[in-house]
Amino acid sequence: MEFGYIIAGFLVGLLVGLTGVGGGSLMTPILVLFFHIKPAFAVGTDLLYAAVTKSVGIFAHGKLGNIDWKIVRLLAYGSVPASILTTLNLKHMDIASDAAVDSIKFWLGIALLITSLSVLFRNQLTKLSKQEHLVSAKWAPHLTLLLGLILGFLVTLTSVGAGALGVTALLIIYPNRPITTIIGSDIAHAVPLTLVAGLGHVSLGTVDYGLLGTLLIGSIPGIWIGSHLSLKLAEHWVRIALALILIFVGLKLVFH
User: Who contacts 10 (Cβ-Cβ below 8 Å, separation ≥6)?
Assistant: First the structure.
């Protein structure tokens, strides 16, 4: 089984390296559907996994000047309190109960479906936002704070949303910012969010440390290979295939 986890970590790392889509949208459903890990443990373990892998991204993007710390702060002002409140709510639930398992699976499915749409239509949405000026500059800070709140809830409950969903929304809110700045800022925000959410799950006792270490063994070389292959493969087709997988898995979780 441990070899299976290493392979899963490698495949998810490979796809993250190829597409830039957050590992949560892939790793958590794989753990739930294929390895039958309890949803709360899959989410908790994946959050700390994301905090470790994305912390490397902060140094890379920080050195290149790709992080807008004002955007990161606004996102965190919304996401960190939302994450803490979601964790406190989970503390009052019996996470092992059928009702809690069904609730986490349902919201995980919804998050995956929203993520799949953001992966499919990111370019069109960005283009539309630039042409039509969908978001006024004076509303941008308020919408960034609101986005943080939504991500704090979704990421803590499902571990999905900090990557593809966050980037797509930021591209709409800040259409004139370079995509490298948007991606860098999203990664910088994802680290404190996944860390706070992950520590919340530590307090709930829903983190499997052995599983976490095994996944990292596979994912680190996977990300390295994927990022190099991305220069050679047509990313457009990889993203379409990834979006279709997310739709299939999302529907399976929502209507299980």
Answer: 218, 219, 221, 222
